[in-house]
Amino acid sequence: MTLTVTTCAVAGSSAFGAKPGGARRSRMERSLQWRDGRFENPQPLQNDVWRAVRDLAGASEHRRPGGPVPTAPLDASSFQRPPATGLRVTWLGHSTLLVELDGRRVLVDPVWGERASPFSWVGPHRFHSPVLPLEQVPAIDAVVISHDHFDHLDMRTLQAMKGWKTTFVVPLGVGAHLERWGVPAANVIELDWWERTRLGDLEIVATPARHASGRSLFSGRNGTLWAGFALLAPAHRVYYSGDTGLFPGLADIGARLGPFDVAMIEVGAYGRAWPDWHLGPEQAVLASQMVRAEVLLPVHWGLFNLAYHGWTEPAERVLVAAEKAGVTVTVPRPGQSIEPAALPPLTRWWPDVPWRTAEVDPIVATRMGPVRVGVDATTP
Questions:
Q1: For 51-102, what is each residue's pLDDT tens digit?
Q2: Are 55 and 159 in contact (CB under 8 A)?
Q3: Disordered: where is this region (predicted)?
Q4: Is the residue at 246 inside a domain?
C-alpha cells in the first residue's frame, strides 16, 4: 500500500503543482479569507461522508453517455467574424468557455486534457474529444482560472499555453502552479475577492465563491483561493460563477457588478452529501437571479463523471426550474456559440434517459439565511 501511494505521488508530482511561498504566501496571509494557515469560506462547507458512501449504492446507471455526445461543428475561422451583437460565448465543454465581448477575447478555465486527474491512466475521463484543437484557439486577451481543482486547471493544457502572449488571471496562490509549469511570472495576475485588473477597456473582477481548493492529499486543502469572475467591458457584462455552493454573497455580486448580460453558472456534480460545494440545478437558477443575469448558460456538466447523478440530469432540472422561475436559459451543444441578445431556439440535443427530479433528490445549501434577489447596486 505504501509503495502504491508513493508511486502515485511521484507519477503525479508535477501535476500537483507548487506550494505558494515567499512574497506570494505573505500576500495570501493578508487576505480577509485567510484563517489559521488556509483560506476559509464565510459559510463553512457541510460534508456528510457516511451519506456519500450510502448514496453511492443508489448512483445513476447513466452517469456516462451510452453513445457519442452530440457536439456542434466548430470552425476556428468563425472567430475571425466579430459577434454581431458585440457579445458571444462558445461553450467548449464542462467549464471551458471562450467569451468574446466588445472586441476582447477571454478564455475561461481551459481544460483540454483527457482526464480530470493528475494521472494519465486513471481518473474521470472526458465524454468527448475537444471540440476545438488548442492550437486553433484564436488570440486571447486573458485566460481566467477559477481555482486549482483538476477539472478546472489542467497541467498539460497550461504547459501548452505557456508561450501564449496573454495574461493569466487567477485567484491568490494559483500562480505558483502556473509558474512551475513554465508560465512566465510577468504574465500572471493573482487576485483576492473583489480585486480588479484592467486590460485596456476590459476590467476583470474576482468575485467571492463558496467552494474549496487543493490538488494533493499531501499538502492539505484550501492552500490557494477559489473565485468566480466578472468581465466588465464598455457595453457588456458577463459573470462566471466558478465552482460554488449557494451563499448570500451572490446578491452582493449582482448589486455591485450587475446586471449581467449572461451568467455562466455551474449546475453539475452535486449531491445531498455535499450540498454546499456545488449549486445544483435549482439553486443555479436562483443564483442567476441573485446576480441579476439576463440569461443563464449552465456549465460544469456534460464532460466528466464527477457525482452520482445521470449525465443529462443537470440540464433537465435546469429547464424545469428556469421555467418555474421565469428565467431565460440557453443550453448550447459543446462547440456551439451563442449571442445572449439573439438566442437561438432552445433544443434538447442530449438523449432522453432517466433522471431524478428536484423533489426526489433536492440540493439545499446550509447556512443561507434570507435570499435577496434583484437588489439595487450599493457599491460602484
A1: 999 999 999 999 999 999 999 999 999 999 999 999 999 999 999 999 999 9
A2: no
A3: 59-79
A4: yes
Report the C-alpha gap between 203 and 280 in whole angstroms. 29
Integer Cα distance of 190 and 45 in angstroms: 24
294 within domain boundaries = yes
Conformational region of residue 269, where left means phi above 0, alpha means psi within -120 to 50, and beta covers everything else: left
> Residue 202: phi, psi to the nearest 5?
-105, 125
Residue 362 lies in a domain: no
Query: Residue 60, CB half-sphere, CA atoms under 13 Å: how many?
Result: 24
CATH number of the domain bearing residue 298: 3.60.15.10
Length of the chain: 380
What is the number of structural domains in the chain?
A: 1
Nearest one of 151, 363, 361 to 278, comparing CA atoms: 363
Cα separation values, 75 from 72, 129, 299, Å: 10, 15, 21
Task: Find how far residue 332's CA is from the centre of its chain.
Answer: 16
Q: Which three cell numbers stand for residue 322?
A: 428556469
pTM of this structure: 0.95
Which residues make Cβ contacts (< 8 Å) with residue 371, sequence separation at least 6?
248, 251, 286, 290
Residue written as grid cell 512566465:
184
Question: Would you say residue 366 lies in a domain?
Answer: no
Counting Cβ atoms within 10 Å, is residue 6 exposed (0-12), middle (13-18) or buried (19+)? exposed
